[in-house]
Amino acid sequence: MIRKSEVFPIGKFYKPHGISGEISFGFTDDIFDRTESPYWVLEMDGILVPFFVESYRFRSEETALVRLEGIENEAQAKALFNKVVYYPFKYAEEGGEDPSGEDDWNTFAGFKIYDETAGYLGEVEEVDDSTLNVLFRITNEGREILMPVAEEFITEINAEKREMHVHLPEGLIEL
Q: Does the model's pTM come out above 0.70?
């Protein structure tokens, strides 16, 4: 069984391309092209399910056309519309990727965040990199915290435990 802590989001499937099951994939991380994983993961009815990648080809710098094993027509491809695509950490690490590398903050989705003063803040639900200031959207017991991502706040990263320890300026999490 695949756990959410074993994968991280790399993009989303969009509309089918043609009638043979190929589907448009908008990606936020091109790790799939830099490393080798035989499968990607989608959440289907609340369960993380592996889908084996037959092939992909780039359409632009942010889009690829993907063919998955078992998806052979437009109707099957439509069932994957708007699904978030996850990539297994174990293949990212084997490929030489450092999940604690600061060049792609998306690898920290799912990490638990601990502040030296406030303690456990919650889990990174999403990384907002749509602006110049990257933010972690952290949720804890229904409370949402937007934490600015800055190397100077990070004191320790434990990729194996999927934890990040930070020292945030006083008052920042109350905003």
A: no
